[in-house]
Amino acid sequence: MARIAVIGAGMGAMAAAARLAVAGHRVVVYERGRTHGGAVGLFERDGFRFDTGPGLLRLPAVYRDLFVKTGKETLEQTVRLTQVDPAARHLFADGTDVLLPNASRAGVLRALDGAFGAGAGERWSDLVNRAREAWDATRRPLLEEPLRTDWQALGGDPYPAAAPVRRGWFGGLFARGGGRPRVPTLAEVARRELVDPRAVALLESHALAYGLDPRAAPASATVLPYLEQTFGTWYVGGGMRALADALYERCGKRKVEFCFEAEVTGIVEKDGRAAGVELADGTVAEADAVVAGIDPALLPALLGGQEPWREGEDVTPGRGRPGSGPPGRLSVFLALRGGRPEDAVHRTVVHTPDREAELTAVFGETEGKGSGDRDGLREPSAHPTVTVLRPDDPATRPDDGHEAVTLGAVVAPHGPDDWTGAEAAGQTADRLITAAEAAIPGLRDRILWREVRTPRDIAADTGVAGGSVPGPALAGAGGRYLHPANLTRLPGLYLAGGWSHPGGGLAHAGMSGALVAGLIVEGQDWRGSQ
Question: Percentage of the chain with pLDDT > 90?
Answer without folding.
Answer: 82
